[in-house]
Amino acid sequence: MGIGKLNFKNTVSNVFKKFTFEEIEKRLSKKDGIKYEDIKFGYDSGSFAERLKLLNLTEDQEKIITGGNSTEDLETYGLSIENYIGTAKIPVGVAGPIIINGSYAQGKFYVPMATTEAAMLASYTRGSQLISEVGGCSAFVLSEGVSRCPCFLFKNMLEVGKFLLWLSENEEEVVSHAESTSRYARVRDMNVTVEGNRVYLNIIYTTGDASGQNMVTIATEKACEFIEKNSVIKPEKWYIEANMSGDKKASSQSFQSVRGKKVVCEVIIPKELLKKRLNVTAREMEKFYQVTQNGGIQSGVFGNQGHYANALAGIYIACGQDAACVSESSVGLTRFEALEDESLYASVTLPNLMVGTVGGGTGLPTQKIYLEVLGAYGTGNANKFAEIVAGMCLAGELSISAAICSNNFTRAHKIFSRIRNKKG
């Protein structure tokens, strides 16, 4: 990462303010190796106890991380993770109510969110209540798809051509082998990208009500094994994932298509309520939106939005989602438009919502309960859950943008931080 001319001298002087060059050289040099130490693997109580010994915990510390009932927690959580030692407790609050008029989500929802950030739940509650006061937001799941992108390596482009011809003639069999691994994984599309003597095969699936990363990995492996065994040209090597699926990262490819579920959500707020609840006008919100567009372009972000990640991280952790998927899920577009009657049109478009209501962490005790609170646990509820998540993102965008427009953003954080500090 480059260093600007103006701060180059400061950067160098700060580095050597604490250490001499000789000290830095000594600290960064290779040290003597240590004997390989194996963490005791296993899901039994004996292995669990051995792992705890490695941490040199006090009795009180051990009680805190194990919940005081190590055997019961081991049975509940131990199979969800390797090398289990305990749990990390994060505060969960409730935001809402938010009324959602969706293609799947219908009604009033109180949404559980996990966070340690002051002012966040208050902000989402404010936005949710405003949306509910006007009769709710509209939400719609436009499309869905989860991909895995293997890469096949060949000697030259001639082999690539022969392989592509074979692949086009045997596409149905490749799909059949992929789909044979699951009742729910269904191939929606396959896209090919050629780079020199390499072929990237992006296989896009629907995965029922599961988030689906593991499902599509297993399905894709089966397809690749069939290809390797039966292709007219055997690849020299293949990789199950070639970093082109957008898994755990924001990408322009996913932004333009879909990864997970693509959801849109909109609401119109009358001018009276804008002033009464948010202390702003539609023109002020529109102008702020334009400013953030230009700022986003200059910083090179994908899309344009305020803080989807706050809603996503909070809901994902509370409801048993893969928290690392916030990286791709938080890509999207927020839009504010002042209408002729001075009301505000507000919308969010999230093309990469990675959510599931079965599998993964959704079956853990508290996570299952929080999904049940939303009426979104189990089969048939993933699209409903996605629309609820999108609605909360919209609520958060309205609230944070209005707070900045009305110069209350810093004030709100100060107030809620002081409350926390007083209690502490």
From TrEMBL:
Pfam family, one: HMG-CoA_red
Annotated keywords: NADP, Oxidoreductase
InterPro entries: HMG_CoA_Rdtase, HMG_CoA_Rdtase_cat_sf, HMG_CoA_Rdtase_CS, HMG_CoA_Rdtase_eu_arc, HMG_CoA_Rdtase_NAD(P)-bd_sf, HMG_CoA_Rdtase_sub-bd_dom_sf
SUPFAM superfamilies associated with the record: NAD-binding domain of HMG-CoA reductase, Substrate-binding domain of HMG-CoA reductase
EC number of this enzyme: 1.1.1.34
A GO biological-process term: coenzyme A metabolic process
Keyword Oxidoreductase: yes
Signal peptide range: none
GO molecular function, one term: hydroxymethylglutaryl-CoA reductase (NADPH) activity
Record family assignment: Belongs to the HMG-CoA reductase family.
This protein's name: hydroxymethylglutaryl-CoA reductase (NADPH)
